[in-house]
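Why do we care about 3D structure at all? Because function follows from shape, and shape follows, mostly, from sequence. That is the central idea of this module. The next example makes it concrete: a single protein chain, its amino acid sequence, and then its structure expressed as tokens.
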Amino acid sequence: MKKQILTLVIAATLLASSCKRDNSSFDGPSLSDLNGQFGMLQPFQANKSSVDFSKSETVGFTAKFTKLCDWTIRIKGSNSGAQKFITGKSRIIDASTATWNGSTTLFPMFKNEPCVATLLVKGVTDTFNVTIGITGLRNPSGFVVANFESGMNTKWTTFIQTGGGMDFKIHNDQFNVEGSNYLNMAGTVNWDWLIGMIDFPASAYGKTTYPLSSVGEDVYFNCLIYGKPNTNESRVLFQFREDDNANGKFDPANDDQYDSELRITWEGWKLVSFKYSDMIHLVNGVPASNNGNSRHNPNSLVMVSMLHLANPSNGAASTKIDCIMFTEKGPLEL
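And the structure:
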């Protein structure tokens, strides 16, 4: 009998112990994060008042809150109107969560100008500002195919239709996005999809082939493209021709061509990037087989062609382009 009572006592003790709540840890947000009052324990600050991004300098931001917060830092150029957004969720903002390297979220790009960095906290009406002056701009690395700063390279080959309102020219005006110039491509061609095109041969840069990695997955093609509202949808077709048999030229019977067609469905400037190895061969917009080694070999690239296309039955089409370049190990960051 005593043995049975002892067994029951031990079982009850174990049951009570297993039901006892461990208050040392719990899942989910704390009550102070859910219901606590917002306050700034450390003011919103930048670690420098001016920055030279051309020297790889960066700006770090700091702040500290009384509770966990969703926050956004919006940096806006006072002259360019360019914007950069940095977002996070934390009690503390520091260099590990909020550092700016001069890159842009909403184009055009930043210029040498004063900028206002504004801290916005979700659910809080107050905003917090600091001013930063840009004294030097970023120098993104990569191989530049065209930025139109020096006009049209005489070693490029162009073809422009004789349509209505044709404007296949370099402009320098309020639409500038990077540097001083961009290429405008516009017009009405009611008998053909092609409005105009440019061939960029490797020889235009003093090269036999483009100076790129042999690994297709490492190479990215990038450009800035402007979509104009209320016009016929533009398409920009890029063609990449390789010399697989190393005979010094592209031969469609023996070499590979890869293509990427972009439909310009947005408004304003947009940075477009894609991986070289993701491209396929297209014939009249339809995937087709290649006749070379069927491997993406960027180091065998001898020609890049850019064609501005639009449906001939839909009237005038217009777009702009700038900053055409290759990068390696990642897409272009501007």
